[in-house]
Each structure stands twice: as structure tokens, then as C-alpha cells.
Amino acid sequence: MAVRILHCGKSLENYATCMRERVFGFTHRGPEIGDDVYLVMKRGKDTLCGMRARLADVTDSKPWPDADKYVICFTLNDVEYSSPFDIRFLSQVGGEYWALKYLQQAKPIKETEAVGRLARIFDQHRIIEPDYLGADKPLLPDEPDDDQESSVPVQAVPDAGLSVLGTFQTVRFKNETDASQGLEPLVNRHFYSLFPAYREGHSILIAENRLFRSAGVEARGDAFVKGIRSIPDAILVVYNRQQKHPLAVNLIEYECFGESKISSQEKSNHLNCHVIPQLMRFASAFSIVTDKRLRDQTIKDWVDRIVSHVYERPDLALKLSAWIKEIEPAVSDQLVGLRIHNHLTNAFQSAMRVVLVVDELSGDQKDTIGNVISAFKLESGESIQFLAYIVRLHQKIQITDENAEYALSVQ
User: pLDDT confidence of 46, banded at 50, 70, 90?
Assistant: First the structure.
């Protein structure tokens, strides 16, 4: 377990969102479940702390306006608040460049004296309710920032420099499904290494989309649209006891421009004529825009197929049953099966996401698709959420430091 400081910069909105939603997001991998994290932001010349929490579980929830910055996010336990206090006293322990040592990339604080002093002063300022620093009021212009991080030579703080694993060349996937160089089989094979927001112990990946071929809109008699399927490439059932809906369902669609779609026009046509309509079809099948009788039948079919798949694998059955017993400790063994159906049904009605895994997507395109998908409402009244992950294939050029965390790639 490490102690870290999460710095929101001058963004009062992000600072308040972390407090309100009880979720922390980090721009670099490294923080782990069980770490204690202090939340700070810059206000004028002060670096103010107002919250301390323990990282409870990874999550794909990113409620901030600049969500794409965050590569890993956590829900929180043991949340405590303090009246805002300036942490610049850490310079007495960390020296002139204390900010680089303690704030950059939320690195673990190694000095026990700094950890102890931070904890003691936080305890002296502890309060019951969070202080949002006036997040609901107009902000005054920020004062000039006195941080010296950008001008500090790396030699002054050795830990501030990045060590590089090596160099890599970006290459194209062959296509979506090629057994050796296709996006879908490679992502499925390395799914949990690629996406730290999903822990294998707290999720079930069903990559056999054939299970759902007769459970989509074709089964309801809807018109078939050439090239547009109603079944996802994979389904991910996610468990997080801290969420309002402990079970969530992600419908995953893999798309790959690969070697066959090179020009901007080809990519645009594929996105607009194939990808977006397909994602819309997924969303509409579970949205209130679809007749309730048909929607309920689709949900029932899909829940039945998920449960059947799970019970074909004893390890998955034990995992899902354990989740239900954590959610409802008093439930009897005889009722676990029924509660599994109930919670999965609720997930389709209240906590469903459409996830696109693709080899290329601009920020504007992602925002456009997100706006389209969020227009579809679930039975609970909540919007269907959209997540997009860009996965690229890299080929090694040269390895220079096998213990390093970072790599350089060229395209």
C-alpha cells in the first residue's frame, strides 16, 4: 500500500467532481487498489488539500469533462474530508523541488516523514462534509502559477525523468478477424492486460457472439440491414459492489480499418455507414424507443444465454454466485440463481454501455458517437453510456531498458 497525492491542477470542476462522485482518475498507470490518496488542487499560490481516500476498485467511470486524459480510475473507500489546507510545508521534507517528487504523476511518497506530517495535518483539519472550494460560485481569474516543474533540470530530481523501455513502429492490423494479426482475436487474448479498468475477478468476458445470434432484432422479425448486425462481438459483465447497480453489461463491438481501408474517405464511409448504424442498433434494442414487450423479450433471451454460458464453466458460475452473495449476504443458496437473473435484467435496464474497440478514432468522432448513443434512454430513465478504446499494433525496433515503464513509438 502506497501513499500518493492526486493533483487536479487548477481545475476546480475536476476537484469537485472527484469529491462528489467519489472517484479518482490518474493520467498514468501505477496507483493500485489499497493506496491512500490525498486530493489537491492549485488555488493561486497555494496547493490545497481537502480530501483523503483509499482506492477501492478499478472502474471505467470517467465523469470529468476531460475524461480521455485518464488511463485508470478507481472508486473509493474510507473517504475523509478536511478544511482546505496548503501542503507546501512538504518542501521542508522534500526540498526545493518537492512538487516534482510528490505531485508529478501521483508517484508514491517514499519519505515516511512526509507521509506522517501530511497525515497529522490532515487530521487536524478534518471535517464532516466536503468543502468544494466554492465550485458553485464564479471563479476569480487564476493568479500566475509559480510552479517551476517545467524548467527544473532532470538532474535535480532523478525520479522526475522518464526511463524508456525501447522504440517501436506502429503497424496496421490486417483486419478485424484475422487469426494471427486481427484486432478482435488479439484484443480478446490480451483483454485484461489492455484494459485495467476491468479486473478478471470482477468481470466475465463472453467473446462468443454466436451465443446471441437468435436473441437480437432478427429474432423479433425486424428488417435485416445488409452489413449491420444486431449482435455485439463480445459481452462483458462487470461487477462493482460500490456502484448503484452492482452489475453492469457492456456490449463490445470491434472495428478495424486495417490494411483495406486506407484513405480518409474509405474510413469516413465505413464509420458513418456501418459502425455508427450498428452501434445505434445495439442501443435501440434495449432503449425505450423499442416496444416494451419486444425489449423485455430481448433482455430475457440475452440473460438466459449469459446464464447458460456461465453455468457451462464451473469457475464462472462460482464467480457470479459469489458476487450475488456479496451484494445480498442474506440470500439463500436456493435463491442465488433467481437473483442472478434479476441483477442481470436490471443491468440491461439500468446500467448498460455500448463499447467500441477500434484501431483509429478522432476525438470529434468519439464525441459524435457518444452524443448519438446517449440519446437512447434505458427503462430506468438513464442514458445508455458509450465508451471507446483505441488499440494499435506496434512492432519492436529496439529494447533499451527492460525495467522501464515507457516506450517511444513512431508511425
Answer: very high
Write out the three cell numbers for 65: 469533462
When mean pLDDT is compared across 216-230, 270-284, 389-403, the lowest value belongs to 216-230
Look-up: residue for cell 506530517? 117
Cell 512538487 locates to: 99
- Round to whole Å and give the CA distance between 133 and 112: 29
Mean pLDDT across 275-300: 92
Amino acid 145: pLDDT = 45
Q: What is the pLDDT of residue 139?
A: 46
How many Cα atoms within 13 Å fall on the side-chain side of residue 406? 6
pLDDT at 132 over 70: yes
Q: Which domains does the chain possess?
A: 3-160 (3.10.590.10), 170-393 (no CATH)
CA 236/CA 198 separation, integer angstroms: 9
The span from the CA of 31 to the CA of 73, in Å, is 9
Could you tell me if 352 and 249 are in contact, meaning their C-beta atoms sit under 8 angstroms apart?
yes
- The β-bridge partners of 43 are 46
The Cα–Cα gap between 282 and 290 comes to 11
Q: What pLDDT, in 10s, does the model give residues 366-385?
A: 999 999 999 999 999 999 99
What confidence score (pLDDT) does residue 228 get? 45
Better-scored residue on pLDDT, 222 or 179: 179
How does the average pLDDT of the chain come out, rounded?
A: 88
Contacts 24+ apart (CB under 8 A), 154-160: 156/96, 156/97, 156/100, 157/97, 157/100, 157/101, 159/100, 159/101, 159/107, 160/97, 160/100, 160/101, 160/104
Q: How far apart are CA 406 and CA 370, in angstroms?
A: 30
